[in-house]
Predict the structure.
Amino acid sequence: MFKQLTLCFTLAAITAFSCLLITAPVQGQEQIQQIAPRKIPPARRSYMGREIAQTMHYTGAPWLIRENRENEERCSIMLGNLGVKTGMTICDMGCGNGFYSLQLGNMVGPDGTILAVDVQPQMLHLLRARMEKEAIENVTPILGSFHNPHLPKNSIDLILMVDVYHELSHPEVMLKYMRDSLKEDGQIVLLEYREEDPKVPIKPLHKMSKKQILKEYQSNGFKLTKEFDKLPWQHMMFFGKDPEWEEKASK
Ligand SMILES: C[S@@+](CC[C@H](N)C(=O)[O-])C[C@H]1O[C@@H](n2cnc3c(N)ncnc32)[C@H](O)[C@@H]1O
């Protein structure tokens, strides 16, 4: 009887403990995320007048590393204007198969870290295979959920989001978590295909206008700090935390 009771208590304790764990980093694997059960906000179909696009499926991953991406999007010019310094902690949010994560890994050097977040485990497997092939060790794949990127708080210098934001099913919740994860002077750098330009050969749902981006970011505690307008297809907009929004929110 006593043995049975002890076993019951042990199982209950393990279950309770595993439900409470927030993040358990495991060497050589995606970080295993176990979060306390809580209410998951419903996925949105639209946000502030914009229809939300569907998540790009992992079977489309080869398109992300196509040979002519540099020619079409001038990715190296974008990276050169990102303000990356060695030793930085950068999040590649919606990293896909890591087209940018690996390049950022090289740019920040051995003292820097790239947190590569995606919601599709298949994308992270493709990323890991590319990391192994190129012997990149400072990229940490993180399996996020649609409403929570599972990032550490107050610790990130820069969050890069390339062609991702328009597909977030929980934009305002994700922006809140990203805001919390940034250091005080941390920035989100947003790249979205230009809706204003009919010559950009991308489906309308996967494009965004500057006006819409500003509306959504300013409503969620960010202010525009810089823009780079010389990419052929995309807006590149830098956002920092807006302290006035914090003051208003605390009143
Ligand atoms: C069009 S791909 C862009 C990939 C990469 N940024 C690039 O430019 O090569 C969009 C990626 O965002 C991911 N994604 C969508 N919603 C997400 C979310 N809530 N959190 C993290 N990743 C998300 C998708 O799984 C997909 O891999």
Q: What stands out?
A: The radius of gyration is 20 Å. Residues 55-56, 64, 93-96, 99-100, 117-120, 123, 144, 146, 149, 162-164, 167-168, 174 surround S-adenosylmethionine (CB under 6 Å). The longest helix spans residues 2-20.
